[in-house]
Each structure stands twice: as structure tokens, then as C-alpha cells.
Specification:
four-stranded mixed beta sheet; alpha+beta; five-stranded antiparallel beta sheet; binds uridine-diphosphate-2(N-acetylglucosaminyl) butyric acid
Amino acid sequence: MRVRDPRIVASLPELGVELKPATSLAELTSLGIGGTTDLLRIRKHDAIPELLRLLDAEAVPYKFLGGGSNLLVGDGELPWFVSPDPDIVLQGHFAQVDAAADLGRTVTFCAKNDLGGMEGLIGVPGTVGGALRMNAGAYGMQIGSYVRQVKLYRAARRKLETLEGDQISFEYRHTSFAPDDMMLAVKLELPSKPYREILKGIRICNEKRRASQPLGQKSAGCIFKNPPGASAGRMIDELGLKGLNVGDARVSDRHANFFVNAGKASQKDMLTLIADVRERVQKSFGVILDHEVVVWNA
Ligand code: EPU
């Protein structure tokens, strides 16, 4: 692997970057699909520009890997890296959260400190950075409403930047971040609510989710975005496609917009299933569904 280039490897310790060779991507993604990677684990945000300069100088390709919960990655070998160990600091109504922090843990940590608003996100897998990039939402809320500041690595300018909330646009499962921007930390402003009340909201959302989504199975959440005013899951269900499969890639029996890896599905299996369902929906409803899942290395 190019990342094992001795010049790069020799520079990693002083940058505080850990190299984990031949790490399984199947174990780092919620779909359980993917080959191996040389993983670069970053401990300090400040090391990022220099690390990327080194990788670029040696023409080593890389990707930013977050929680891996909305990703369908290839079976080949590629160098990638993840963000630093997560931290959450609270100050009044504000929560300063590293992008690598687990979303569910962040919601409960804030709740225990009487900060609410994010109850709907409780069952959404992945990191705060992933939720931020996609403007994750559920049950009538979206994370973008609470964002006041974002620290990120701007790949196009090769530097760290801090954006104020009003410099970012948050739309339905879409933000104004560039695809190669790397989320590093976010400042959220959350409404005060007693823990007990937040907990009630969390329980309601959990119950709704358990009743309608295949939580115990390997999935990437919803595969398609909902078209305006309609539900992709309902359309796929109406076509009788629950249980449709290509190898071990399968349309969930519980929620038709969740495609699960029921065993040893490959990226190709999943992509074939996605294309098939998309075509059938287009034929029957005249609607072209957009992916919500992010596809790498197709
Ligand atoms: N429906 C069916 N069959 C199905 C699935 C859904 O008939 O197989 C019907 C439901 O009965 C309901 C309607 O379709 O009447 C909408 O379903 P649901 O409430 O499950 O919401 P959704 O539009 O399918 C969206 C988000 C979910 C989020 C839920 C709850 C998208 C693409 N999906 O799903 O987010 O959890 O609302 O707020 O926006 C995700 O983004 O990955 C995700 C799972």
C-alpha cells in the first residue's frame, strides 16, 4: 500500500496520527460491507493540513471516514482516515461536540444535562459529523436547526476553518458543505428542558422506530431520499418489493426504504438491488428516487 511509504509512516508519530494497517471496512460500516483499508487515526485537528499535504505529495488517495453508518463502500483496498477521539463540552445552552462523537451518546449526554431538542435523533446510527453533513432528521426535527458554529477542514483551500451557523444552508438531507469537506466539531445551541421530559420524548421516538424500522439488522438507514410530498418506503412497499433480494442484499420486510445485508452481501449486490428498485419505482410512479446512502468506490 502506498500509505506505507516510509516517508509518510516516519512522519505520523510527530503528527499524533496512528496507522492501523489492513483494517476491515466491513467492521467500520453499519452495512457490514467493504474490503480492507490502512486507517489513519487523527488525534489533533491541527495535524490534518500537514497530513493531507504529505498524502497528496505522495499521491496517496484518501477519504474521510466518520461513523460509517450511511456508507456503501467497495470491496477493494484504499487508504482512509478517521477523526480524533470524541469530546463534548457543555456551557450554558451550548454544546461543543467533536464530529467523531456518537450521535446517540451526544443526545443522551445533553439530555442528562437538561438540554433537549434532539430527541428525534436518538435511534439514528453514526456520528455527529455524519448527521451534520447530511442534516440528519427524524420525527419533525433536523440537526441543522441547532447548529451555531462548525469547525471543518476545507479540502479545496487545504485549511481548517470555522463557519457560523448562518453561513451554512441546511435543507432536507442536504447541506452546503462540499463533498470533500471534513467535519471536525460543531457548536449546538439547545433548548433547556428537564431530563425527565426529554426522556419521555426519547422513549416515544424509540418505540416508533422499533415498530417501523429493522433496527437489529445491518443497514444504512433509508437508502433513498423521500421525493417532495411522498414516501419512498411507501412506494416501494406498494409495489410489493419487501423481501426482494440480490444475493444477501434485501429490501427489509419491516420498512421498504431500508435495504439490509442479510449475510454476505457485496457492494455489487446492493447496487444492483438499488438500481432495480429505482427503475421499478420510476416505471410505476414516474418518480426518480435520489440516493440518500453515500456510495464510495463504485
Ligand atoms: N410506509 C409504508 N411501508 C413501508 C415504509 C413506510 O407503507 O415499508 C408508510 C408508513 O406507514 C407511513 C409513510 O410510509 O405512512 C412514511 O413512513 P415513515 O414514517 O417510516 O417515514 P419515512 O418517510 O419512510 C422518514 C425518514 C427516516 C426517519 C422517519 C421518521 C427519509 C428518507 N426517511 O422515513 O429517516 O427515521 O421519517 O421520521 O427521510 C433516514 O434518513 O435514513 C431515515 C431512516
